[in-house]
Amino acid sequence: MRLATLLAFLRPALPLILGLSLGCSLSLLRVSWIQSDGDDTCMDAGINNGLFVGKKQQNSAAGGRPGQNDEDFKPRIVPYYRDPSKPYKKVLRTRYIQTELGFHERLFVAVLTSKATMNTLAVAVNKTVAHHFPHLLYFTGLRSAKVPHGMMLVSHGDERPVWLMYETMRYIHQHFGGDYDWFYIMQDDTYAQAEQIKALVTHLSINQDVYMGRAEEFIGGDEQARYCHGGFGYLLSRSLLLKLHQHLDSCRNEILSVRPDEWLGRCIIDFLGISCVSQHQMQIRNLTSLTPAGEAGLTWPIGINAPFIPKSRFEVISWDYFTEQHLFSCPDGSPKCELVGASKADISDIIEAALEQLNSRYQPQLRFYKQQLLNGYRRFDPTRGMEYVLDLLLEAVTQKGHSHVLVKRVNLVRPLSKVEIIPMPYVTEATRVQLVLPLTVQELDFVSNFLDMFAMNTLDTHDNALLTLLFIYQPYDAQRVSQMDVFAGVKAMVGELEKRYAEVKIPWISVKTEVPSQVKLMDIVSKKHPVDTLFFLTSVWTEVNTEFLNRCRMNTISNWQVFFPMHFQEFNPVLMYHGDQASSSTDFLRDGHFDRHAFAEACFYNSDYMAARTKLAADILDRDEVLESMEVFDVFLRYSGLHLFRAVEPGLVQKYVLRSCNPRLSEELYHRCVLSNLEGLSSRSHLAMALFEQEQANST
């Protein structure tokens, strides 16, 4: 009975016992195989001065040649030998490997509190940030202070602020100086973003002497020296604390100050020569000496691209002058105009930003109030953003109430670095594109080239694109259409295309009007197509190609985005080449410019146009004359919440032609057409050369 009970008890351990027995047996068996004879003795470790000794060394020592019996070389481990004449010393090992390797905790936080705020502000700090800072301790000057629940408090017994700071620094060094890399000192009325402070210390090097916080100037002291304002808290590195400890007694006896943060800052500056820094970006500045450009390559602001450097006088970016009431570089070309709208909001915002930066730098000693903007300059640098130079008449008020009026120039940059990720719906390149081409009598000479390019780039390639023509008749031509149709030649060309491509039908729509408003024409076309139609509103000078049609499909999203490309307009070849043949170059976008005044090309869905047009109709009621001053771009801009994608389009290249501007259009549209013609003549350098040659010819 007892044997059965014993076997039942040992049965779970039988695999373990069998495994151990088998392992021991195999080990003993292996030892018997590799057991060497008595000739293989270890040589004296002092003679060979090594840990491993073998037969090869014995043969060499006996005068044998190296290389004999190399295959018999077997290393031997020299046993540990302790000198009996020396006392035995026990080696003490640390309990944790972290301590033995010299690792430190990352951050220690000290909170300075007082009798008046211990049960209010200090408790609030403990409830808000204590769970973010795992190592947080409160310091006070009270004797036998009653500690609120959940707080660890150190009482120094002296309520003088400077003495409290002195004792706190000594206590931190004595008890925590060897355990932490960073020390954050704050007051109980400091609003601290704990996660940002913890993230900051994880990116800072522990080998640097860092004194970081809100840098403030000493009143009446050296302008270069700064101390860290205690109201914002400040960060000290372990290396700085170790160096500062030996000077604390000297600072207590030699430095007189009422404010504890000023006393500590003066102590660090006088004995260590380290001033407070307020931005971590300063370490970017320190690393510039290691770059190829050195300190000369440092840009302002740090992290923003350097200003654009023009290669010639024609590339110089001009500054626009402004005041608080007027702008002296107006969109319509006039020398002076009233500051309104977005420009007024922009300048008001930049002045407020300048005052905010000045006050943040000089507070609490000085407070600035704007009296007047004397001069203002701005320019748009495409490599960095909008730059501003402001001459401000300011009133500076000190803490004691004394004021002084001064003029200060400030430089500001509104960078282009703010990137917004916009979620975009998925689109494909399989959508059918419906081209709409309005034609007037003045444009008949260019129709043949347009139809040839359309046939070659879309019909021959079987691209999913259709064409609709809009014949715009003047009232006189419309009355004589039965006798002489001014568009008869175009209709014949269309008939030839339909014969050549049997599956293709090119419809046309006849319209009679004296003022060919783009909006009125689209109203007619929109009613004759389904709501899901993707329109490409084009002009007769456009050379349609597959590359652009695909971008039209991708950049136009129903109920989300419309696309208004800027075509590339070639310059007048007479002014560019003086009658010579154009030089062959791979850069086909070299002798021209992107026409920012033209809005003739547009890609949009019919449903989006109908929705915007409905809002426009409700706004203007029956005043159809308003439509003559608008283009399709204006309709989407004012009466839709869609994204308007306006971008340069290298796939749309137009040959030079002097367009006829209809004086019956609105003043804005007519002026835009004239500017497009003028800027499309030639580059500034070629225009200057043409004027110079003309003056030379006139003088002779």
UniProtKB/TrEMBL annotation:
Its main location: Golgi. It is a single-pass type II membrane protein. It is found in: Golgi apparatus, Golgi stack membrane. This is Hexosyltransferase. PANTHER family: CHONDROITIN SULFATE GLUCURONYLTRANSFERASE (PTHR12369:SF14), CHONDROITIN SYNTHASE (PTHR12369). One of its GO terms (cellular component) is Golgi cisterna membrane. The keyword Heme does not apply. Residues 1-19 form the signal peptide. Its EC number is 2.4.1.-. Residues 106-281 form the Fringe-like glycosyltransferase domain. One of its GO terms (molecular function) is glucuronosyl-N-acetylgalactosaminyl-proteoglycan 4-beta-N-acetylgalactosaminyltransferase activity. Belongs to the chondroitin N-acetylgalactosaminyltransferase family. It is an enzyme of class 2 (transferase). InterPro entries: Chond_GalNAc, CS_glycosyltransferase, Fringe-like_glycosylTrfase. Keywords: Glycosyltransferase, Golgi apparatus, Membrane, Signal, Signal-anchor, Transferase, Transmembrane, Transmembrane helix. Coiled coil: none annotated.
